[in-house]
Structures are given as structure tokens and as C-alpha cells.
């Protein structure tokens, strides 16, 4: 190494950064708040891989989006099975006392490939690997059918070059294109399919916390490695009450973390039936004003006209204001869903603004989309984005599934909350007595869902507002509560409570609403009692 090279100071690369104390204490507090709040809504944590097959993101986020077409960190990763095969071969050569120099290892690897191909059915391969497999199999059968490992040195000299060539080509052909994840919804759906989670009872509610990677132009609040706290609900129902509860949980998080002045922006971007018509109308309108638009928007007229609505260019704003709006082109089913969602939000006293330009930069959304805007962050003021993505699981090869979720930008939340002179060191938590963590064994049955304290079985439309209020109250007390989004018969609710492993069911019908007293049923022995709200909370709190 040259002396000046040795002296060069190595710094973190552009767009990534270190998080130091005391700021890191605030990060922990934000993440812990999310864990605490999400647990009260019955969400369990999923830990996902940091990299996935590139195709996962291309298919879900969309290959035409900026995220996939410009911003992913992608590379080719050779197939692991092959690596293992080569490793095995090399160690067997070593075992025979041959000198393990690099060339021999490479040629040996090539030889291992030939052997592997000569036994593998090329019909299981496609494209380039198939072509190579056929060529190599033919060669192998002609030249090496009788070859044993001891004869390798002889064939090395004759076949060194073609083997190396095959080896290289083969490695490229079988490499998998992988990418650092730019977001995690796609991974959650992949995992949902891979682990057959559609067979679990009720909706599957998952949250994740971790870094994401996008090669964006760094600026305040925008990084190339940034962090998200996200949550997703997957299941069979697209009831607007699910959307509203997801948003309620989000607002509860922002409230608990102390981020004030946040605004919820809401929109519906329609479905596969109504959106294409709208996009066509939008494209026609944009073509009429094409000459007045900047080059990015001009390009998007062809590739993705909806994205023009995202433009921040001041000179384009008056033009965009006059474009046709999606709200006026929704099909009856989407219009009804959007209206019902707004009713649900009002019932929960959640303030929102309809922002007809909120189309989001990912292709998987349909119907509900939302963002949360925080004050004081400048241009990068969205602290959370989310929406509904019914059909994404199907698009990735899984069963028909509805889905909705969001991701909070942790960097931006921390940026909003952080003041350098404030003391973020939390007082130490009281430590529970030391416990030995029991290792899992094959006989252990993993719980399908996190511990659930209460399921609220409500019956009749009149009981629902009371159920919503009670659920919020109990969650505020730290209890985890499941509130079915749609009305169910009592028997079905109690069955679901059982399957989810709830400790108690609270039964609310019209009589309970009128009397202000609720029936609480302990599921383990079906004992019931009737309690007023304050007594009920006291009772549940004292029964850990
Ligand atoms: P997104 O809007 O791309 O949505 O990202 C969500 C949030 O992540 C943004 O609102 C922002 O706070 C933060 N964020 C995004 N890019 C950066 C960056 N370069 N630097 C700092 N923060 C950033 C999604 O990722 C969807 N997966 C959300 C979702 C989940 N939709 C349904 N389920």
C-alpha cells in the first residue's frame, strides 16, 4: 500500500451515517414505543432478510418506479448450492494430498461442475444454464465418463482453459440478481406465502423495524440507508374498519412518542376496474399541456402519469390543479369503501385532510392511501406512508389476500423530536428477576400470535362505537385487544377468541350499551361476570 493511501481517512459513504449517543437513546425510545403500542393491537414482530431477489421488488413495487428502476443497490449472488459443491470438491482434493493451489482449485471446481451437470437433468434448467448444461453433459460423457479423481492432474493441462471458461460462464448464468431491500412490504408478503400464514386464524398482523436502502440524492431527512418501523395486516377482509384501525394505531404511536402537529393526508386511488380509465383520462389531459411541463413530467406521461401529481415544481402546480381528479372517477365499490373509511375515522375522532394528489410512489397500492406530514422537516416532511394493497400476495404467487399497512420513517421522526440539549437517557427500568431463557426444542409449539388479553365480541351496529371506544381505552392501559372489523355471531367471535388464545372475551350487545355494563368471560373456564367500565379495567389490570 502506498503511504499516502494508508493515511487517507476512511469516512462513512455518502447518504449513510452513524447514530451516536445520546441520539441513539432516543432511537431506542421511539422503537420501544412502537413495540409497546403495536402489541396492544395484537401485532407480532417479523424479522426479515436485508436482501431479497431483485424480482420480488420489481414485481411488487413495480419495475417502472423510481425506487426499482433507479434507486436499488443490486448485485449478482452466485447460487449457494454450487458453492457448497465446489467447497466439497476442494476438500476432497485436499484430502487426497494434492497441492491446493488456486489454479487447481478453479480447475477442480470446473471439473466438479462437469460431474454435476453430467448427472443433472437439463430439463430442470432453463435459458443459459440449460444450454451450458447440455453442452457440458455432452462433453462430460465423451471425455470424462471413466475419469476418477486421481486422473485430474492429467486432464488439467488439456482442459484447463475450457473448464475455466465454463466455470465463469456458469457462475454468471446461475447467479441470482439480489437487491438490498428498498422497503419491506414485499418481503412481508413473500414471507406470508412462504410460511403458509393464510392458514392462521384471523388477520395476520405483523410489524418490522430495520434499515432500508435507496440510492436517493441525500439531503436533510433523506438518506441512502434509512430506517423504517412498519406494520402490515394480511387476511381475507378489506373492511374499511381495518384501514381505520391501522391509522388509529399509527396516531396512537405518534401521540405516545410525543410528535405533535402531525397531519394525516388521505386518498383513494381506486382499483383495477376504475383506475385504468382515470389514468387514460389523466394522460389525455396531460398530453394537452405537455409543452408546459418539465422533462420529468413529460416522460411520466408515458411511463406513469399518476406520478406527475407528485411533482413539486412550482411552475407545474397551477397546471396540476386543473387536471382530472381520481375522486371523481372512482367506481361505486371504491367510492363506498372510501366513504365508509371516512365514517370510521370520524367515529374514532381522527382528523384527516383529503389530498387527491396522494398517489404514492409504489405500484402495489389500491384504494386507501395515506401519509403523515410532520411540521419543521422541510421538503422531506412525510414521516409515514402507507395504504391498501389487495392482490399483492396473489401477484407474488400466493392465495387471494387483502392487505394494508404503513411504514414510519424513523430517521425523520427522530429528527423532529431531537433537541441536542435534552436528556434522552431514560431512567433504568426496574429489572425483573434474572431468568434463564429456555431454548426452544422441536417439541415446543410456537404461539401463532402474540399473547392476547381480550377479544371484544360486539353484536349489532349500535354496539360498534362502544366497542371501538372500549378497545382504545383498554389498549391505552397496555392490554392487547382484538376488535373484529366486521360483525360476527357470538359463537364465531368466541371461537376466534379461543383460536387466538385470548384470555378474556368482552361481550357487547345493545343491552350492554344501554346499561353501560359489559359481560366479561374468562375463556379458560367460561366463568362470566358483569362489570361497569371502570371495574372492568380494574379487573383486567389485576389479572395479569
Ligand atoms: P414509502 O412512502 O416509500 O413507503 O416510505 C415510508 C416512509 O419511509 C416515508 O414516509 C419516509 O418517512 C421514510 N423514507 C422513505 N425513503 C426515505 C429516505 N431515503 N430517507 C429517510 N426516510 C425515508 C413504503 O416504504 C411502503 N413499504 C409503506 C407501506 C407499508 N405501505 C404499505 N405497507
Describe how the helices and strands are arranged.
Elements: H1 3-7, H2 23-40, E1 44-45, E2 51-53, H3 54-62, H4 66-70, E3 74-77, H5 80-95, H6 102-119, H7 127-143, H8 152-174, E4 176-180, H9 185-194, E5 204-213, E6 225-235, H10 240-257, E7 263-268, H11 275-288, H12 295-303, H13 317-321, H14 332-347, E8 353-354, E9 366-373, E10 382-388, H15 392-395, E11 402-409, H16 410-417, E12 452-458, H17 464-476, E13 481-482, H18 490-499, E14 502-508, H19 510-515, E15 517-522, E16 528-532, H20 533-541
Parallel strand pairs: 1-5, 7-8, 12-13, 12-14
Antiparallel strand pairs: 2-4, 3-4, 5-6, 6-11, 7-9, 9-10, 10-11, 14-15, 15-16
Histidyl-adenosine monophosphate (HAM) binds next to strand 6, strand 10, strand 11 and helix 16.
Question: How does this structure look, described?
Answer:
The N and C termini lie far apart (63 Å). 43% of the residues lie in helices and 17% in strands. The chain contains 20 helices and 16 strands. The protein has 544 residues and is of the alpha+beta class. The longest helix has 23 residues, at 152-174. The chain has helices spanning 3-7, 23-40, 54-62, 66-70, 80-95, 102-119, 127-143, 152-174, 185-194, 240-257, 275-288, 295-303, 317-321, 332-347, 392-395, 410-417, 464-476, 490-499, 510-515, 533-541; strands at 44-45, 51-53, 74-77, 176-180, 204-213, 225-235, 263-268, 353-354, 366-373, 382-388, 402-409, 452-458, 481-482, 502-508, 517-522, 528-532. Strands 1-5-6-11-10-9-7-8 form an eight-stranded mixed β-sheet, sandwiched between helices. Bound molecules: histidyl-adenosine monophosphate. Histidyl-adenosine monophosphate is lined by residues 183, 185, 214, 216, 221-223, 226, 228, 230, 232, 362, 382-387, 405-407, 409, 411-412.
Amino acid at each position: 500500500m502506498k503511504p499516502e493511501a494508508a493515511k487517507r481517512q476512511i469516512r462513512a459513504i455518502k447518504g449513510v451515517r452513524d447514530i451516536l449517543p445520546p441520539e441513539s437513546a432516543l432511537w431506542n425510545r421511539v422503537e420501544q414505543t412502537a413495540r409497546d403500542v403495536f402489541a396492544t393491537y395484537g401485532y407480532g414482530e417479523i424479522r426479515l432478510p436485508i436482501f431479497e431477489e431483485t424480482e420480488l421488488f420489481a414485481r411488487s413495487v413495480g419495475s417502472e418506479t423510481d425506487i426499482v428502476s433507479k434507486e436499488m443497490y443490486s448485485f449478482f449472488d452466485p447460487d449457494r448450492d454450487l458453492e457448497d459443491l465446489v467447497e466439497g470438491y476442494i476438500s476432497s482434493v485436499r484430502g487426497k494430498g494434492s497441492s491446493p493451489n488456486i489454479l487447481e482449485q478453479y480447475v477442480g471446481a470446473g471439473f466438479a461442475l462437469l460431474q454435476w451437470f453430467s448427472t443433472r437433468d437439463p430439463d430442470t434448467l432453463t435459458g443459459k444454464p440449460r444450454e451450458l448444461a447440455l453442452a457440458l453433459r455432452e462433453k462430460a460423457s465423451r471425455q470424462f465418463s471413466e475419469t476418477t479423481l486421481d486422473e485430474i492432474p492429467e486432464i488439467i493441462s488439456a482442459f484447463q482453459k475450457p473448464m475455466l471458461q465454463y466455470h465463469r460462464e456458469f457462475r454468471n448464468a446461475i447467479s441470482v440478481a439480489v437487491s438490498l431491500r428498498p422497503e419491506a412490504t414485499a418481503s412481508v408478503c413473500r414471507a406470508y406465502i412462504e410460511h403458509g400464514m393464510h392458514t392462521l386464524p384471523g388477520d395476520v398482523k405483523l410489524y418490522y423495524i430495520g434499515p432500508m436502502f435507496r440510492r436517493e440524492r441525500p439531503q436533510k431527512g433523506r438518506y441512502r440507508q434509512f430506517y423504517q418501523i412498519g406494520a402490515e395486516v394480511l387476511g381475507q377482509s378489506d373492511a374499511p374498519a381495518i384501514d381505520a384501525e391501522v391509522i388509529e394505531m399509527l396516531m396512537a404511536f405518534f401521540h405516545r412518542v410525543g410528535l405533535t402537529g402531525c397531519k394525516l393526508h388521505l386518498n383513494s386511488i381506486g382499483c383495477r376496474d376504475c383506475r385504468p380509465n382515470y389514468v387514460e383520462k389523466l394522460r389525455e389531459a396531460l398530453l394537452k399541456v405537455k409543452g408546459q411541463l418539465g422533462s420529468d413530467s413529460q416522460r411520466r406521461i408515458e411511463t406513469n402519469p399518476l406520478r406527475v401529481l407528485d411533482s413539486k415544481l412550482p411552475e407545474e402546480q397551477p397546471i396540476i390543479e386543473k387536471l382530472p381528479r381520481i375522486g371523481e372517477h372512482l367506481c361505486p365499490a371504491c367510492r363506498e369503501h372510501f366513504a365508509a373509511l371516512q365514517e370510521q375515522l370520524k367515529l374514532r375522532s381522527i382528523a384527516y385532510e383529503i389530498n387527491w394528489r396522494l398517489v404514492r410512489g409504489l405500484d402495489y397500492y389500491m384504494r386507501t392511501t395515506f401519509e403523515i406530514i410532520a411540521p419543521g422537516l422541510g421538503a422531506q416532511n412525510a414521516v409515514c406512508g402507507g395504504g391498501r394493497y389487495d392482490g399483492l400476495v396473489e401477484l407474488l404467487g400466493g392465495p387471494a389476500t387483502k392487505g394494508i399497512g404503513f411504514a414510519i420513517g424513523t430517521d425523520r421522526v427522530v429528527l423532529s423530536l431531537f433537541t441536542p440539549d435534552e436528556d434522552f437517557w431514560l431512567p433504568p427500568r426496574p429489572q425483573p428477576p434474572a431468568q434463564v431463557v429456555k431454548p426452544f426444542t422441536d417439541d415446543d409449539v410456537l404461539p401463532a400470535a402474540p399473547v392476547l388479553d381480550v377479544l371484544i365480541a360486539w353484536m349489532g351496529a349500535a354496539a360498534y362505537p362502544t366497542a371501538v371506544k372500549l378497545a382504545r381505552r383498554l389498549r391505552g392501559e397496555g392490554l392487547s385487544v382484538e376488535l373484529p372489523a366486521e360483525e360476527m355471531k357470538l359463537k364465531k367471535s368466541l371461537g376466534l377468541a379461543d383460536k387466538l388464545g385470548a384470555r378474556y372475551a368482552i361481550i357487547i350487545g345493545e343491552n350492554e350499551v344501554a346499561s353501560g355494563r359489559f359481560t366479561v368471560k374468562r375463556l379458560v373456564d367460561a366463568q362470566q361476570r358483569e362489570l361497569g367500565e371502570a371495574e372492568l379495567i380494574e379487573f383486567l389490570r389485576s389479572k395479569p
